[in-house]
Amino acid sequence: MICPYCGSGDTFEYYHTIIPTVDRACDREKLSEVKLMPLVVEFCKKCGLGFNTTPLSMEYLEESYKNYVYISPADGIGQTKFDGTLRKISAFFSKDDELIEIGCSDGFLIEKLNSLGYNRVLGIDPSPQAEIAIKKGLNVRRVFFTDKYLGERKVDGFLLVHTFEHFENPFRILKDMISCLKEDGKIFIEVPNFEGYHHEHLFFYNAYFMDRMFHEAGLKLIDISYETVAFKKDFYLRCVAVRAENPDYPEFRISERLKDAESIAHSIAERYKDLYERITTFTQADKSGNVYWWGAGSASVVFLNNIDKSILDNKKFIVVDGDKEKLGKFIPGVGLEVYPYSILKDLKAESLIVASSHFTEIQKTLRENDICPEKVLNIF
Ligand SMILES: [Zn+2]
Predict the structure, then answer these.
(1) What gap in Å lies between CA 250 and CA 271, rounded to an integer?
(2) How far apart, in whole angstroms, are the C-alpha atoms of residue 232 and residue 221?
(3) Whole-angstrom Cα distance, residue 164 to residue 159?
């Protein structure tokens, strides 16, 4: 394939998997519409970018974005999710800065920023979730961002939190942001760190590539940080960049080289293979014939549709979740129903697989409800 960033043909496939077109628990009627589609990811040996070579059509993507609504942290799940993001934004932007958040969804981050005293933040998002933010009275517009949007006006900063990996042409959007940025303005981008293999994600970034991309766009990286999520070390990557000629900040020198990015790409398929083997071993150790599984979000949907088929055929899977919105719904693809976690107690579950980023909260919930499986495997 040709690299969509640098145009090189020197690329290789480093990961492939099968993911349903709907990747969260859904209603029973939806199950028949769901298709299992391959996700094939390639790595460019010249620039270090990972890219999705099997993007879904807009029709499927829109469907999956609609499903994003009920996993929003605004509904009470994962409220602490953006704490690290907010700390970093507070460190680099002042409260009177005029900021634009591109891809603000239902405005969760904007609300948080407003509560911290950032009152000049405009959110932009073309998706239906923007309407939710607008109804809440937040400063949000439901449009696509282009350099035409602001006219001659320039802003102090752009915030992109888990959106840059979704854009069809992120490099065009970067250009547009730069042309709307004040001389001393900053761009903040948070993305999964070479992770997050879903149909919605079209690009897979790493520190080496981000540094290179900013350089080639006339910017310089001034800060880079990582966040560990559950047991996934350095799962998120946060970058702050300014114009290359900005004298106020020294350039942040990254230690990653192109060969490091390439070796990570090579390790990803192996890492997932190991994980699936651990699931197989774990389920075989429980002689009850049941597999208890916590999690009905996207991680679970992907895992359940890719585990060894013989386990699915030979064991009875009982999927539970703590999120009321997911109860009574079904895991697309495998079609398993989602039950409340309280049934684990009645069923005296001896072992439990947890596929969720909220592992600590789940452990606490288990203890508080006197549910004590002897063995727990966290696979997120
Ligand atoms: Zn490339």
Answers:
(1) 36
(2) 24
(3) 10
Strand residues in 193-307 grouped as ranges (E): 203-204, 219-229, 232-243, 290-294
Structure confidence by residue, pLDDT tens digits, 162-204: 999 999 999 999 999 999 999 999 999 999 999 999 998 999 9
Tell how far the Cα of 380 is from the centroid of ligand 1, in angstroms.
29
Cα–ligand 1 centroid distance for 297 (angstroms): 32
Distance 15 CA to ligand 1 centre (A): 17
* pLDDT tens per residue, range 217-247: 999 999 999 998 877 788 999 999 999 999 9
Q: How far is the CA of 370 from the centre of ligand 1 (A)?
A: 52
SS3 at position 121: strand
Ranking 88-92, 323-327, 336-340 by mean pLDDT, the lowest is 323-327
What pTM does this model have? 0.89
CA 243 / ligand 1 centre spacing (Å):
23
What is the distance in A from the centroid of ligand 1 to the CA of 9? Answer: 8
User: Could you tell me the domains of the chain?
Assistant: 73-249 (3.40.50.150), 267-378 (3.40.50.720)
> From the CB of residue 156, how many other CB atoms can be counted at a distance below 10 Å?
17
Ligand 1 midpoint to CA 209 (Å): 9
Output the six-digit token pair for 211. 């540094």
Ligand 1 centroid–CA 143 distance in Å is 30
User: How high does pLDDT run on average in the chain?
Assistant: 92
Ligand 1: distance of its center to the CA of 99 in Å?
Answer: 30
Which pLDDT score is estimated for 252? 95
Ligand 1: distance of its center to the CA of 239 in Å? 20
Cα(371) to ligand 1 centroid in Å equals 50
Q: Which long-range contacts (CB under 8 A, 24 or more apart) does 191-196 make?
A: 191/162, 191/164, 191/165, 191/236, 191/237, 192/162, 192/165, 192/235, 192/236, 192/237, 193/226, 193/234, 193/235, 193/236, 193/237, 194/50, 194/237, 194/261, 194/264, 194/265, 194/268, 195/232, 195/235, 196/165
**220 CA → ligand 1 middle, Å:** 19
How far is the centre of ligand 1, averaged over its atoms, from the C-alpha of 8 (Å)? Answer: 5
